[in-house]
Amino acid sequence: MKGNMNNMMKQMQKMQKKMMQAQDELHEMSFEATAGGGMVTVRANGKKEIVDVEIKEEVVDPDDIEMLQDLIVAATNDVLNQIDEKTNATMGQFTKGLNMPGMF
């Protein structure tokens, strides 16, 4: 029985190390989303930090600031959704079958 417990602890430590490596890799990844046919581009890292926003000059209309704001919001939400999907797909492999919803 004691041998099984030690074995299980080693397996858990191994899984924890793999999880941390996967999380580190995710944090290093880059994500990009565009809106308005490429008029607005938002880039983020895997930590959900926005690292760059690019706005094409043609979309800047002082009489329609709301459209530009909407495009920025749309691109930002898209890039954040991409990060969530990648995080869930990557980290979900570690929680499969453990019945621990919402862990990531």
UniProtKB/TrEMBL annotation:
<dbReference type="InterPro" id="IPR036894">
    <property type="entry name" value="YbaB-like_sf"/>
</dbReference>
<keyword id="KW-0238">DNA-binding</keyword>
<dbReference type="Pfam" id="PF02575">
    <property type="entry name" value="YbaB_DNA_bd"/>
</dbReference>
<dbReference type="GO" id="GO:0005829">
    <property type="term" value="C:cytosol"/>
</dbReference>
<dbReference type="InterPro" id="IPR004401">
    <property type="entry name" value="YbaB/EbfC"/>
</dbReference>
<keyword id="KW-0963">Cytoplasm</keyword>
<comment type="subunit">
    <text>Homodimer.</text>
</comment>
<protein>
    <recommendedName>
        <fullName>Nucleoid-associated protein OSO01_41000</fullName>
    </recommendedName>
</protein>
<feature type="region of interest" description="Disordered">
    <location>
        <begin position="1"/>
        <end position="24"/>
    </location>
</feature>
<comment type="similarity">
    <text>Belongs to the YbaB/EbfC family.</text>
</comment>
<dbReference type="GO" id="GO:0003677">
    <property type="term" value="F:DNA binding"/>
</dbReference>
<comment type="function">
    <text>Binds to DNA and alters its conformation. May be involved in regulation of gene expression, nucleoid organization and DNA protection.</text>
</comment>
<feature type="compositionally biased region" description="Low complexity">
    <location>
        <begin position="1"/>
        <end position="23"/>
    </location>
</feature>
<dbReference type="GO" id="GO:0043590">
    <property type="term" value="C:bacterial nucleoid"/>
</dbReference>
